[in-house]
Amino acid sequence: MEKERHVLVVFPHPDDEAFGVSGTIATHVENGTNVTYACLTLGEMGRNMGNPPFTNREKLPKIRKEELKAAASVLGIQDLRMLGFRDKTIEFEDDEKLTNVISALIDELNPSLIITFYPGYSVHPDHDATGAAVVRAVGKIPAAARPKLNCVAFSNNCVEEIGEPDILNDISPVTKKKLAAIQAHRSQTEQMFSNMGEKLENKDPEVMRWITNERFWTYEFK
């Protein structure tokens, strides 16, 4: 990965950054690039409460906020923005309002690279709506001045419809940081780690491929 001027990561939920892009984030930080993570919600409508449960619906937003801060610290993110939108409502936000929020971040930070979800190919309505807002904001910038836009996609039809990923980052050198970032989101990931702990310990090839390979599609504006 080349050194960027500034990387802006935009996702709707705490833990969105951990699974798909935390190794890429950690690598950029180690390369000396400043990273801003704009997280739209606190994931307060998440169903997981830990395993065994250690919180409840009322306390979950506070728990997830602290988990997000812990994950950001593990990855070395210098600038964490919590934008205060409500979980599971991003698709219902006014398009212009949401676009303007992203545009303001771009104007302030002048990133050379933006990472978000690929709209239409990221499964959750909040994911798609967030990616669409970023695409609209970047699309307003003259083509010659636009930052690179790398998108995460994981729907079943993504490769069939948008092709193979343009970028495959091998993040093996920062695997420990990625796993620590995922584990920081304890309320959401304890069950997963309890199920795959032995496979991780034995470096199961399939699991390690999932951990060490991060895929991105370069968004092409029409």
TrEMBL record:
Protein's gene: bshB2
Upper lineage: Bacteria, Bacillati, Bacillota, Bacilli, Bacillales
Highest taxon above the source species: Bacteria
Protein name from the UniProt record: Bacillithiol biosynthesis deacetylase BshB2
Required co-factors: Zn(2+)
Signal peptide extent: none
Pfam families associated with the record: PIG-L
Family matches, as InterPro entries: BshB2, GlcNAc_PI_deacetylase-related, LmbE-like_dom_sf
